[in-house]
Specification:
9-stranded mixed β-sheet; Rossmann fold; 6-stranded parallel β-sheet
């Protein structure tokens, strides 16, 4: 049986800051369904809920070197939803309020990367493939090749490195080469880890891994161009032969309007008319006028510039003044956007409801209630929001970039095909025109139900994507 160790800095339900946690929490589960022995390893954060900590079994205690430092390590274990999960324990590094954003992040995640490899004997698990994710795990492939040469148990291991977001690369002062990584300067001087006179964990992961993936086909192409490439486009072009885009999925057991306990009224593609009952209930909760006929436009997002919020700011007043719609926004982010949306709701209380927070239950209720989902990202490696929206028959309006382009097909009223509405250029009025086109189709209820059924029929569960990963692992094992 194929053996895979999936390495991530976060995974649901244990710790989450973004979409990586959703992937790490659901992809291993689907891969095991497809016959691979996939196990997950992550840090044991202090913020992990006690109900999970109480289930953990202690496997091993020891010490590992972080350059000149000798640090305690523990390994704990539990099985969650059929997936064996290992937790790397060191309270000095991981018993903190947040997962990231500390001055010693280079040291913390160097420790984690070394621990992943050094603890394999204690775990009694030497995988065929180690699957790494984002900058926090990039040094695993470097340490594997440099620190474990001559050990047959390690030399047979192959590595896959997935880039979830190229913008976040793990950049640190060059002094970490010796002070934290404990590596010879030649690996900096030859360019393997050097990046504009700094150390780049992601670059190291890309160079030393056997294969690279990213989270959509279009993003795999985009990042080879300067605009999207975050100054690594040249390296990606040079390694294009070992780069593949595999779209993310979502967990269809968690996101299922037919069984979702968080929503007001459950429904499926054959009873999609019940969706409007959710809208009425949500309108009451949010204090909006209760109207079954009004189109509800939703934004569930981090409120940050890459999500295209400047486009929304540009046209929101024009849209809300001249169109009979309701706008619902859920999310947190930059204060300038939080304050702007609060001001919009204050000016238009009968049309706009804003919740500056992240409430998972409310998010599910919005997907189940809203008619349209707006996601005009400047760039989007994959995107989870539009996949959830499709599942709940909340029709996406997206810009054609990254995973948005790969997952939302423009609706064609003549062929009755497509799952949403798309626009090409990063332009506020092109987006406004697309929203108005969608609102025009909403007025034709028969036509709209066709779009909703198309959206809910689209399959973006993990089965197909996991199959592609499984095939990749098998190719590397040969």
């Amino acid at each position: 049986m194929l053996k895979v160790l999936f390495v991530a800095s976060e995974a649901v339900p244990f710790a989450k800051t973004g979409g990586l946690a959703d992937v790490a929490g659901s992809l291993p589960k689907e891969l095991r369904r497809q016959g691979a022995d996939v196990r997950l390893i992550m840090p044991k954060y202090g913020s992990i809920k006690s109900k999970y900590k109480e289930q953990m079994q202690h496997l091993a205690t020891g010490a590992i070197q972080v350059a000149w430092r000798k640090k305690f390590i523990g390994v704990d274990y539990l099985e969650h939803e059929g997936v064996p999960v290992y937790f790397v324990d060191n309270e000095e590094y991981f018993n903190r309020k947040d997962l990231y954003g500390y001055e010693d992040d280079a040291e913390r995640f160097s420790f984690f990367c070394r621990a992943v490899l050094d603890m394999l004997p204690a775990m009694d698990f030497f995988p065929d493939v180690i699957h790494l994710n984002d900058w926090h795990t990039g040094m695993v492939s470097v340490f594997l090749k440099l620190d474990h040469r001559g050990d047959a148990r390690y030399e047979s291991i192959r590595t896959v490195y997935t880039i979830h977001n190229l913008k976040y690369q793990g950049l640190f002062a060059k002094e970490v080469m010796t002070d934290v990584l404990g590596l010879d300067w030649k690996y900096f001087k030859n360019g393997d880890l050097e990046f504009f006179d700094a150390v780049n964990f992601m670059k190291g992961g890309m160079i030393y891994s056997d294969y690279l993936t990213t989270v959509s086909r279009t993003y795999a192409q985009e990042i080879q161009y300067e605009y999207f490439g975050e100054r690594l486009d040249g390296l990606l072009r040079a390694n294009s032969a070992k780069l593949q885009g595999i779209i993310n999925g979502i967990d269809y057991e968690v996101y299922n309007p037919a069984t979702d306990p968080k929503i007001f009224v459950q429904y499926d593609k054959n009873t999609a008319e019940k969706k409007v009952d959710n809208k009425v209930r949500l309108q009451k909760v949010l204090g909006l006028p209760v109207r079954r006929d009004v189109p509800m436009l939703a934004i569930v997002s981090r409120l940050v510039p890459p999500k295209g919020l400047d486009l929304i700011v540009r046209i929101a007043d024009e849209l809300l003044q001249y169109e009979d719609i309701q706008l619902v926004v859920l999310g947190t982010g930059d204060k300038v956007y939080e304050d702007w949306f609060r001001g919009l709701a204050w000016r238009l209380p009968k049309k706009v409801a804003i919740d500056i927070c992240f409430d998972n239950t409310l998010a599910h209720q919005i997907y189940a209630s809203a008619d349209l989902f707006l996601m005009p990202s400047r760039y989007e490696p994959c995107g989870i929001g539009q996949l959830i929206a499709l599942r709940y028959g909340c029709i996406p309006i997206v810009r054609e970039t990254g995973g948005l382009k790969d997952t939302v097909q423009p609706f064609d009223k003549y062929t009755q095909t497509g799952t949403g509405f798309t626009f090409t250029n990063y332009n506020a009025h092109e987006m406004l025109y697309t929203i108005k086109r969608a609102l025009g189709d909403f007025e034709n209820m028969s036509l709209w139900q066709t779009i909703v059924k198309n959206a809910m029929t689209a399959d973006y569960g993990w089965a197909e994507s996991a199959k592609q990963y499984h095939e990749l692992y098998l190719r590397l094992k040969k």
